[in-house]
Amino acid sequence: HISHDFQEPMKVIHWSVEGKTEFNALIFIPAKAPFDLYTPDANNRGINLYVKRVFITDNCESLIPQYLRFLRGVADSADLPLNVSRETLQEERLIQVIQKNIVRKVLDTLAQMKENERETYESFWNEFGRVLKEGIHLDIENSEKLQQLALFESSKTEPGKYTSLDEYVDNMKENQKEIYYLAGENRNAVESSPLLEKFRKHDVEVLYLTDPIDEWVVQSMTDYREKPVKSIEKAELDLGEETQQQEKEEKEKSTEQYQQLLNFLRDKLSDKVKDVRVSARLTDSACCLVADEQGADIHMEKILQSLNAGAPPTKRIMEVNPSHALMEKMNKLVKDNTNEIKLSEYAEMLYDQALLTAGMQIDDPVTFSQRISNLMAAEGEQLAQSKTTENAQTES
Fold first, then answer.
1. Which of 135, 154, 348, 379 has the highest CB neighbour count under 10 A?
2. In what order do the strands lie in the sheet with 207-209?
3. Which residues contact 208 (CB under 8 A, 6 or more apart)?
């Protein structure tokens, strides 16, 4: 009758409040999200308001916050005047009191579901988690409770399974000081990022933020349980002073060794990157793109560009892996001052490769394809010559 939903609700919440303010409420959490849940102009009729069992309105916007717009039910107040108008409801103090009570009761019920009925709660999160996360940013008063309710996939969960922030902190490494996350379009895109290599090596968990809303929400989550929340695009893994000092010394040594190559890449890619530096985060890949402390993450930039097609791309920092065979060969070519035209092409290919591994589009796919083809042809010719020489030596 209330929501025209013929499925059994996921949860029924029924309680009475007595004291200075008296009201009864019957709230339903639906089993499935309504089709218009994410439609901005939809008339989401949530909680019906009654006064002493007399119907007042089915669209009292002040009765529940927007991030709980999926709720359905009734609230019956004994204190509101019967002649209250729909226009004055928004300013009615008692409505604000009822709203606070409803929000507190619903969030407490969800917390109990998360603790005692995890499978049911994960079903709820799949349907309404994206909406609930809006409250982390919008509802300052209840932001901490909502952060406790949030679930995320991570590098240590199976696809479709979740961890909470509390579970993440409880499972942190002994010397780990920060909560790490990486944003992307989906789990596959995030898992293929070279930025995860060092974290995998040290078995450090990284949260996967794959909802478009996540990076907007995480701006309100600067820390959790006194642990800073950091994007691995900006933060490097910190596992204690001793490890940090060792890595700093290795990085300084590599920077000195590769200084000529770094200067060459900075010069050739000056119109595309902010800086080129030696990486301490890569173990397998040759290079990657990272954001500086003030810059937007790559996934956030892609979302902003989709909203504003004319937005210029942000210059990022390119990091190179000093232990990768490709970088060692390029460094030798630069030092020997060998074939600058070929080195310039290598620099462009390196940047395009970094774009692709970051999930971004390259500027000129045709030229990139031609460079790959030319490189493969040159490599094939060298192999053929090597084989010919080997056969000649065998015959002799």
1. 135
2. 163-164, 151-154, 207-209, 179-183, 227-231, 223-224
3. 152, 153, 154, 155, 181, 182, 184, 187, 190, 191
Q: How far apart are CA 63 and CA 308, in angstroms?
A: 35
* Packing angle of the helix pair 259-268, 340-357 (nearest 10 deg): 80
Closest C-alpha to 178, from 240, 243, 111: 240
What is the length of the chain?
396
Helices and strands per DSSP (H, E), number in the chain: 14, 14
Q: How close are the terminal C-alpha atoms of the chain, in Å?
A: 95
What are the φ and ψ backbone dihedral angles of 37, each rounded to 5 degrees?
A: -60, -35
> What is the token pair recorded at 252?
């300084």
Torsion angle, alpha carbons of 6, 10, 16, 21, to 10: -90
Tens of pLDDT, residue by residue over 154-212, are 999 999 999 999 999 999 988 888 999 998 888 998 998 999 999 998 899 999 999 88
In degrees and rounded to multiples of 5, residue 30 shows phi and psi of -65, 160
- Cβ-based burial of 193 (10 A; exposed 0-12, middle 13-18, buried ≥19): buried
In the numeric block, the tokens 């490189």 are attached to 375
Q: Report d(CA 135, CA 225) in Å as an integer.
A: 19
Exposed / middle / buried, residue 228 (Cβ in 10 Å: 0-12, 13-18, 19+): middle
CA pair distance 177, 169, nearest whole angstrom: 10
Q: Say how many CA atoms lie within 13 Å of 247 toward its Cβ.
A: 16
251's CB contacts (< 8 A; 6+ apart) are: 278, 280
Tell me how far CA of residue 287 lies from CA of 130, 180, 276, 282, 363, in angstroms: 33, 21, 10, 7, 18
Per-residue pLDDT tens over the stretch 243-271: 678 878 888 899 999 999 999 999 999 99
Handedness of CA 239, 242, 247, 248 (dihedral sign): positive
Exposed e or buried b for every residue in 338-352, given b needs 16+ CB within 10 A?
Answer: eeeeebebbbbbbbb
Read off the pTM.
0.84
Cα distance between residue 196 and residue 206, in whole Å = 8
